[in-house]
Amino acid sequence: MIHEALDGRFRQPGHAGPDRYRGLVIRSIRVDDATIRALERHETFAHAIPHREVRDLGDSIALFDDRDPDPFWNRMASIRWPADATAFDHRLIETIALFTIHGRQPHLWPSPDHSRPPDLVDRLVRNGFCDIGGGHVMVLDRPEACPPVRSLELDAGVTLRSIRRAADACPDDTLDTARVLAESFGAAPGRESELAADLDRTLDDPRVTLVIARIDGEPAAVAKATTFDGLTYLSSIGTRPAFRGRGLGSLVTRQAVAADASGERRLTYLGVFSGNEAAQRLYGRLGFASVGESPDLLLE
Asked: Which range marks the domain in which residue 93 is found?
């Protein structure tokens, strides 16, 4: 269940004072715990495609990548731990041991306003976790602001292509998508071929659609939509620096929202870093609203 709220600003959980306000969003809404948990579970399984492991622990859900140690691919979310100090410490020790077994740094994503116990963030900080930069979960609650792209909206030389399965992909599609992602998100040099190989495997999954925008044949912007269980998760939305400022982020986002042709009612959502106010404004114009902001906690 979703309820609109008036305050578009969020404080870092466990901290007070106006100086601790992080990102600002145009609009915010409140959601119940069941909806937040469904989003967290869905996002974890979406990120597991094509080869990562999901561990559903009942009071939390964990994602592990046995090939890539990057904390983004190795984390625990949807945390609902006991408030009792002894029981809490026991779960924390078990969690650290689980990450150690996988050879990964303990990494926790608290839920926006829904983690348990309520002072989870403060307890984790006291145990050595540091906030490496949080983010907002944003849901599309005004779909009329995010209509499908019409061909007449495209400037001369701009093309949009949606790829729903590996058999539909042209030889250059995944390589071009990898190039855009590498430049958009500052990937390490030489990662493009690895990203392209992952994208090829990802497209073997029918739940995934890639959207790529080109200008005069040159790859410029991309987005990905992962749809199942009545939810669509948008991710990998990026534009190469040389092509920014032309509205391509809006085009690929709208095209990705329209990727599911089933016509079934679903909830569409995405994540955005707290400091990325330009992206927050873009998604706000497209009908997305924040359901809360949380830190990103890493045991260093």
From this structure: 2-136+295-299
159 in the same domain as 127: no
Q: Flag whether pLDDT at 29 surpasses 70.
A: yes
Whole-number Å distance between alpha carbons of 122 and 192: 39
Instruction: Tell me the pairing of strands 61-64 and 53-56.
Output: antiparallel
Mean per-residue pLDDT of the chain: 88
C-alpha pair distances (Å), 131 with each of 241, 274, 295:
28, 12, 6
> Residue 213 is part of a domain; what is its CATH number?
3.40.630.30
63: β partners: 54, 75
pLDDT of residue 197: 85
Residue 6 is predicted with a pLDDT of: 31
Which alpha helices (H) appear in 224-271, and where do they start and end? Answer: 248-257
In a domain, 97, yes or no: yes
Mean pLDDT of 13-39: 67
Mean pLDDT of 81-95: 98
Counting every residue written for the chain, the total comes to 300
- Asked if 246 contacts 282 with a C-beta cutoff of 8 angstroms, the reply is no
Task: Tell me what pLDDT residue 41 has.
Answer: 97
23 and 127 belong to one structural domain? yes
Say if residue 240 is in the same domain as residue 155.
Answer: yes
From CA 113, how far away is CA 79, in angstroms rounded? 11
Q: Do 214 and 114 fall within a single domain?
A: no
Query: What is the arithmetic mean of pLDDT over 34-49?
Result: 97
